[in-house]
Specification:
Largest sheet: none
Structural class: mainly alpha
GO molecular function, one term: RNA cap binding
Number of strands: 0
Pfam families: LARP1_HEAT
Strand content: under 5%
GO biological process, one term: mRNA stabilization
Protein name: La-related protein 1A-like
Number of helices: 9
């Protein structure tokens, strides 16, 4: 008689469960993901993508500076190799994580990376930055956060709504297809 498989849960899910974080489990999971990334190459490891998602969610609730620094470092390495999944997870972390608990140092990192990627032609960070400010103002009584002048100008003059981002994306796709 065939036996049924035991219920399987990816280690990243177990680590996100309430009171489920165990340093030893995390270290094993992290090592497996990093080894997979090294073996398969940047952008080719689903395990690494899972680690990016894990960091994006976990750090919103439990901020660990060394974990954040590793997240940021690897996401930037991947982005330098034209693979943006990690940096997109990082931008989501900034947007949602800062809404949950504002941290000045993270906010400054968010602004700097937003500008860096904007100047490279990548709007994803700017869209998450816009969303952070838009929803923070709508859903809370929190004090407004000061924006860097370059970002303030972009949000005031060019990117006032999600539709502005979508229009810019459509226009850039049209230009790419035309060449």
């Amino acid at each position: 008689m065939p036996k049924s498989f035991p219920p399987f849960q990816h280690p990243s899910h177990q680590l996100l469960e309430e009171n489920g974080f165990k340093q030893q489990k995390y270290m094993k999971f992290q090592k497996r993901c990093l080894n997979d990334r090294k073996k398969l190459g940047i952008g080719c490891s689903e395990e690494m993508n899972t680690l990016y998602r894990f960091w994006s969610y976990f750090l919103r609730d439990i901020f660990v500076p060394s974990m954040y620094n590793e997240f940021r470092k690897l996401a930037l390495e991947d982005a330098a190799a034209n693979y943006n999944y990690g940096i997109e997870c990082l931008f989501r972390f900034y947007s949602y994580g800062l809404e949950k608990e504002f941290r000045e140092g993270l906010y400054k990192d968010f602004e700097q990376l937003t500008l860096d990627f904007y100047y490279k032609g990548n709007l994803y960070g700017l869209e998450k930055y816009w969303a952070f400010h838009h929803y923070r103002g709508q859903h809370s009584q929190k004090d407004p956060v000061t924006k860097r002048p370059e970002l303030e100008k972009l949000l005031r003059e060019e990117y006032r709504s999600l539709e502005d981002f979508q229009a810019k994306e459509r226009n850039s796709n049209t230009v790419k297809e035309g060449n």
